[in-house]
Input
Amino acid sequence: MEKRIHNFNAGPAALPMEVLEEVQKDLINYKGKGLSVLEMSHRSKEYDAILKEAEKNMKELLGIPDNYTVMFLQGGATLQFAAVALNLLPEGKSADYINTGVWATKAIEEAQKLGKTLKVIASSEDKEFTYIPKEFKISPDAAYLHITANNTIRGTEWQSFPETGKVDLVCDMSSDFCSRPVDVKKFALIYAGAQKNVGPAGATVVIIRNDLLERSPKNIPTMCNYKIMAKEPSLYNTPPCFTIYVIGLVLKWLKKIGGLSKMQEINVTKAKVLYNRLDKNDFYRGTVQKDSRSLMNIPFRLKTEELEAKFLEEAKALNMIGLKGHRSVGGIRASLYNAVPMDSVKALVAFMDDFEKKNS
Ligand code: PMP
Output
């Protein structure tokens, strides 16, 4: 096998080895068709089969009900910040947002830029976004409630999703999508950049309940218009074919390992190994309240920034990459997405133990 490093990147991130091998095998001559997926027409029979299979597997894995549409769009989760407000927040209405960190803040700012009215009904900014708010009151007439399932930078995650009654729940699931089962019918709309848990960069998954499609106004950019995008899902214009192909392979891999319940079990086991190490003593300090801890992104600090710099340098020498905390918060962050193997987590913890011995 090729030499592989321990990849703790926050996204784009590790992909399953099996998927990479299949991509490699089929790269030049896809299933004997004499061309690569990279070169295929998005209107070809071959590509159509790839897209349909990815959609089908996504529906199966997440148990997506028939009254929802799955789309692979472009523009990142960032474009969805605007698209959600453009489609679902008409003039004269207000939407609720819960602010749990940088990405939630960006979703709020993007809607505000469009002149939309919204209310931030809860925020964890008072404690540097180190917890998920538990107390909030949803406005009964809100157009929707927007939340961020997992906060990639701060490492907090909703352990369960709020009951919203009649109010539509919209969720940015970018950094924990397909890492655990979710009850899709609780959500009006889910969006997620693919590049953390389900594929390479270039596509954003949007899962939308079909009745919402009627809300899209005509005078918004076509690429943001859910109604137009859903008419022929993922084929309005040239889609990121290769990314969608790789997503399809990752979804097949997820099915093969036993689906999202099994994936969650594996993710819980991996995260426990690292959290147990953090909780052992105060050499390393987890930065998140225990009841809000993410299974995906695990940030921690050492006593000084100098020690953190040394930690990162030595980790790199041991082929562990992507451990530097986000530039806005510093410290260390290990991202343990679906495809990060337990071996990498064990290697990290062994290094942490060793580093502690040498530096305390
Ligand atoms: N939301 C969350 C939770 C994220 O982690 C990110 C990217 N790190 C984004 C949104 C933005 O995604 P994109 O880069 O795909 O626009």
Notes: The mean pLDDT is 97. The chain is about 35% helix and 15% strand. The first strand starts at residue 6 and ends at 7.
